[in-house]
Write a structure and sequence with these properties.
By secondary structure, the protein is mainly α. It has 17 helices and no strands. Helix 6 runs parallel beside helix 8, helix 7 packs antiparallel against helix 8 and helix 10 crosses helix 11. The chain is globular and about 60 Å long.
Length: 291
């Protein structure tokens, strides 16, 4: 009976989501960035001129380039240098991801802390890229985008279902269960599934859809288990090292399947590996205080 009720709720809220949520038009700057990047004769200076029309975007890109978790040894103070350091392809991913983040999180809510969400997402994104590089996986650009957008279902719940989002918060606190469990009780699905639906609707890569859908349980991923495991690990680390990182999506338990997927040996080695990044995570937060 409970499963049937959850199924009916899921069907109902999927319909409501389809009716309530329309894909925002991509900002003009994304079209311009894509046009420049697709031009084989384009230079970093030309791309920098386009991006410089949006100073808020410039600040975000520089914050990424100067992230302690990126490990760039010198200060990146200009957008042109950031483009050279990060590369055209990664800049394109950053521009698209930040634009989507802006479109889904620009609203007022008593249960959604936009600043906390941004900080958690950006820390997870930069850490995902860094750890992908450190482990020798050639998915660092995808890891950044997946890390930034892994929780995109949360602001969608809070934005389009404000009454239900309050119920989710109340149930989680009263029953002592995770917000994700409370989401399923109220909506028939959790933010992972909502995020997957939106990624598919935006026609973003299937890789991203599976990571968003499985970032709490990477063992459930079928095609992109490595990337899902990377994001799961950094999501856990962000919550471990960043005080009050993300109350809504507080990943406190690791899916042990990542030991084999990421070739991290045993639990003792994994714990030492995680703790070796604590200083960089804390430095990253210091750089985001005025973000």
């Amino acid at each position: 009976m409970v499963e049937q009720e959850i199924s009916l709720k899921k069907e109902r809220y999927m319909r409501l989501l389809a009716n309530a949520y329309s894909l925002p038009a991509l900002p003009f700057i994304i079209e311009e960035v894509n046009r420049v990047i697709d031009n084989p004769k384009a230079s970093a200076a030309h791309l920098g001129d386009v991006i410089s029309r949006d100073q808020a975007l410039v600040a975000k890109i520089l914050s990424v380039a100067n992230s302690p978790l990126y490990g760039i040894p010198r200060r990146v103070s200009t957008i042109d240098f950031a483009i050279i350091i990060l590369g055209f392809s990664h800049i394109k991913n950053i521009v698209i991801a930040f634009s989507l983040m802006d479109s889904i999180s620009a609203f007022d809510s008593t249960v959604f802390d936009r600043k906390r969400y941004w900080v958690h997402s950006l820390v997870t994104a930069t850490a995902s890229k860094r750890i992908a590089d450190d482990l020798g996986y050639h998915v660092s650009g995808e890891a950044f985008t997946a890390g930034l957008l892994h929780d995109l279902g949360i602001p969608i719940i809070c934005k389009h279902f404000p009454k239900e989002s309050k119920q989710i918060q109340e149930i989680a606190l009263e029953k002592g269960i995770s917000f994700r469990e409370a989401e399923t009780l109220v909506l028939g699905m959790d933010h992972q599934e909502i995020g997957r639906v939106l990624v598919e609707r935006w026609n973003l890569p299937p890789t991203l859809a599976e990571v968003v859908a499985c970032h709490h349980q990477p063992s459930m991923a079928t095609e992109h288990k490595t990337l899902a495991s990377l994001v799961h690990l950094t999501d856990y680390m962000a919550n471990k090292f960043v005080n009050d990182s993300n109350t809504w999506d507080d990943t406190q338990a690791l899916d042990q399947s990542i030991l084999g997927t990421l070739r991290l040996g045993n639990s003792e080695y994994l714990e030492a590996f995680i703790n070796s990044y604590q200083k960089q995570f804390q430095e990253q937060i210091d750089t985001l205080n005025d973000f």
